[in-house]
Structure formats: C-alpha cells, structure tokens
Amino acid sequence: MPEQVTLQNLSLKDARVTIGSFDGVHRGHQVIIRDLVQSARKANAPAVVITFFPHPAVVLGKKTHHFYLTHPDEREMMLKELGVDEVITLPFTRELAELSPEDFLAPLKKHLGMKELWVGYDFAMGKNRSGNTGRLLELAKPFGYELKILEPIQAGQIVISSSLIRESLANGDIKSAREMLGRNYSLSGRVVEGDGRGKQIGFPTANMSVWEEKLIPRNGIYAGWVWVEGRRYGSAVNIGLRPTFGDDVLHPRVEPYILDFDKDIYDTDILLEFVQFLRPEVRFEKLDDLINQIHMDVDAAREELKNAVKTPDLPA
C-alpha cells in the first residue's frame, strides 16, 4: 500500500496541480496528467494530483455500491507511473463539498505554492459546484496561479468519461471500455476456497475475492487474461449467480477458468484482464448441457485471445 501523503505535511514551491476524482485513470485523465507532468518538468517543479476517496458521487448519494473502476491504491500507482510526484487523497465529506472555491484553494497555495492549476473543460467543485472554470479563472490572479483548461478527449465520436466506462462495463461492452481506458479493464483479488463445483465437472475455476466496492462487469462469460505470479495465461471467465445449480448467491462471483493450467493457487493474489464478452449467463436444465456449453466457451475464449488486439495508444 502506498504511503499516504497529506496536504498539511507538504511544503512545496511552484507546484503544477490538478484536481479530480480520476477514477479509472482513463485516456482523458492521462492527457491531463501527461501535460501537467511535462509542464512541471520544464519548470523543475513538482507535479501534484489532488484526488478524493470516497468518490463525491458516493458521499452525496448519487451512486451506490460496486461503483469504482480503480481502488485508491491502484489509482495512485497509475498516477505515479505517469510521472506524478505527489498524490494527495483527501477524505471527501459533505463538509468538504460545502467549501467555497476560495476556502478550498487557500491551503493548496499555502502548502503547494500552486503556480498552475490544470482542469478539464467541465470541471466544477465546491458548494453548488460554484468553482467552475469561469470562477477559477477569476480567482487565478488573487491566488497567483495560471489556469490551464483542457478540451475533452474522444474515443471515436464519444467523449471519454468514467461514467460512460461504467455504463459500458455494465452492458458487457468490453471493447468500448478498453478504448476509453487505453487498457483492458481488470480486477485483482485473492483466490479463495469455493464449493468445488467447477472441479467436479472438469473445469476448476479460481474463485476470486474482489474488493467489494469495485465495479464488476455484466454477468456472463468472458475471454480474459489472468496474471499469476508474473505470468499471463488465457482464461474463460464466469461472472454471475450460477443459476444452473440453484445456488443462493446474492452477489456475482468472479471465477476464471485458467487455460492450460493445473497449479494450486489458493491464497494467491491474481489479476484478471477482460478481453471480450462472449455470452450472457443462462440457466441450463441439464448438467450435460452446461458442460457442453463450457467446452464451447473455452474454444471461443481461445479464439478471441488469439485475435486479441493491442490496446489503443494515447492521442499524440
């Protein structure tokens, strides 16, 4: 787990700063971060990201569970890999949401010496979202920073956003999610004991314990990659409630069947990348019908992985 940095413990000069939730660290976020870091390097100044957890939409009651595209530690790691020097994760509360833009910016100037503020075209913060780009531009001179506003980044004809990625995953549209993220959507978790049903029918699966707040894609069968101890393996992944067995399951289980793999990996942390949605989850009347379908799913997964495309590059 990354060491947590607090605003009060910092005393920086001329920082280049951006503020946002950055859930998913998608291609739009990456463009902001790339430009922020480039500006910071030219000025020999620190690049700083101010972000939040919980997500403002969760605290304000606009979203419920199984919402996040990235765990806060995962998000911080991705931002650091893009060259960010400091990631400050503020606990988001209703009190924080009620702050005026001036009250929010004051400690940034004090502790970071904020010289530039980088935001997206639709950015807004503070009470009643009053800290929009227009207001931030008005405050630039008294607070001594230059405001940098970035235009939206598109994937095809659509503007990239975390909410649209969530919608794509909820619909099983893995391709669209990948195009917006710039990488395969992934889940990480520890392999835990299941009830052994897969093993009994010849398809032992790795039952993953996933962070309970992480967004799980639509129930169904997927082709994916599984990373185990630094090695990548193909997999046919089942997400769902296993209706054929009549199990009393309240939340979807994530169970990759790792192709050409026979090691015991209980209590091992693995990473699952989604490549393609294959079919919805259905209930079979006969167990033999399910087994026959699993054989077809495995063949379909192999074919998809054979033809898996490279994740898209960022815009130049």
Structure, explained:
- The chain has helices spanning 27-42, 56-59, 72-81, 94-97, 101-112, 133-143, 162-170, 174-181, 197-200, 287-306, and strands at residues 16-19, 47-53, 86-91, 116-120, 146-150, 154-155, 158-159, 186-191, 208-210, 220-228, 231-240, 253-258, 269-279.
- It folds into 2 domains: 11-158, Rossmann fold (3-Layer(aba) Sandwich), CATH 3.40.50.620; 184-306, Beta Barrel (Elongation Factor Tu (Ef-tu), domain 3), CATH 2.40.30.
- It is built from 10 helices and 13 strands.
- 34% of the residues are buried.
- The chain has a 6-stranded antiparallel β-sheet. A 5-stranded parallel β-sheet has the order 3-2-1-4-5, with helices on both faces. Strands 6-7 form a two-stranded antiparallel sheet.
- With 316 residues, it is of the alpha/beta class.
- Helix 5 (101-112) crosses helix 6 and helix 7 (162-170) runs antiparallel to helix 8 (174-181).
Question: How much strand?
Answer: 15-25%
List low-confidence stretches: none
Radius of gyration: 22 Å
Number of helices: 10
Secondary-structure-derived class:
alpha/beta
CATH homologous superfamily identity of the largest domain: HUPs
Instruction: Report how far the terminal alpha carbons are from each other.
Output: 32 Å
- Per DSSP E runs of 2 or more residues, the count of β-strands stands at 13
CATH C-level class of the largest domain is Alpha Beta
User: How many domain modules?
Assistant: 2
Order of helices and strands: EHEHHEHHEHEEEHHEHEEEEEH
Name the shape in a single word: elongated
